[in-house]
Specification:
This protein is α/β, with parallel strands linked by helices. 32% of the residues lie in helices and 24% in strands. The protein contains 8 helices and 14 strands. α5 packs across α6. The longest helix is centred in the C-terminal third of the chain and has 17 residues. The radius of gyration is 17 Å and the shape is globular.
């Protein structure tokens, strides 16, 4: 039986940020800057994320770089508050997908980890539910959402990852928010499966293909954490950016409130 100390050891304090993509659908804003450095209501996506991670006690951030890598590294440096920052660069980000970025980080991390994409804005208090191992953030679907969904299987948590035509816009499918929490053992198992995909030259796949396969064969178990659909946004296009700025209009007030909520949750 897992003891309280075991649970604390499994709590992630390392975050892995995938930020290698070109963000071409957000052009011209991303022609000469990284997507995560685009501003939402006066603050960059990356700065918002850093503050949320700091509010929840994270002490290490690993960033996978590609497009405009120098600009991200110059922006972050090697530390932000209590968070130590390290990097791994993808030399072939133009021709690979996020599975390759995830695989590149395999030797950088040997601990529980929070995986997060670099194009998300969300209410920081939502992250509290992700501070346990083997969780996936999900949301009920709204019309703007697309991409991978999951279905649930009673007490077993996530029953299936649904990619492409398998994903359906109905109430039985929940959208993945692209935030995951993995225990050390789960991360090692994922890395082993990633090795097999990369060896087979499947660098154009999404990492969700690996998760789907592992859920199906029983080698991965994930518990869903429900994110309020009106409290997060994935920014891929200019239209997404405009919608996110409506959702998060006043940075200073909203972040202060979120920080207080997060601090209260961590202290509790």
């Amino acid at each position: 039986m897992r003891t309280p100390s075991d649970a604390r050891e499994q709590r992630p304090t390392t975050a892995l940020l995938l930020a290698a993509g070109m963000g071409s659908r957000l052009a011209p804003l991303t022609d000469e800057t990284a997507k995560c450095l685009v501003g939402v209501s006066g603050i960059t996506i990356l700065e918002r994320l850093l503050r949320i991670l700091g509010d929840h006690g994270f002490t290490r951030l690993v960033v996978v770089l590609g497009h405009e890598s120098d600009s991200i590294q110059d922006y972050l440096g090697d530390r932000s508050g209590d968070i130590e920052i390290s990097y791994v660069k993808s030399s072939c980000y133009r021709t690979t997908n996020n599975i390759y970025s995830l695989w590149l980080a395999r030797k950088m991390i040997d601990e529980p980890v929070l995986l997060i994409e670099s194009d998300l804005v969300f209410n920081g208090s939502l992250l509290k539910g992700m501070l346990k191992p083997d969780r996936v953030a999900v949301s009920r679907q709204l019309p703007w959402m697309n991409g991978t969904t999951v279905t649930f299987g009673g007490k077993s948590g996530v029953r299936a990852f649904c990619l492409g035509e398998m994903s359906r816009p109905d109430a039985t499918h929940y959208k993945t928010v692209n935030i995951y929490s993995f225990s050390r053992a789960t991360w090692h198992a994922i890395c082993a499966r990633l090795d097999s995909y990369i060896a087979a030259k499947r660098t154009g796949d999404y990492y969700e293909s690996v998760f789907a396969e592992m859920i199906a064969d029983g080698s991965l178990t994930l518990e869903p954490v429900l994110f309020d659909a009106d409290s997060w946004y994935e920014i891929d296009t200019l239209e997404d950016l405009a919608a996110a700025e409506v959702m998060f209009p006043r940075y200073s007030e909203s972040m202060k409130c979120e920080a207080n909520q997060a601090a209260s949750g961590v202290a509790g």
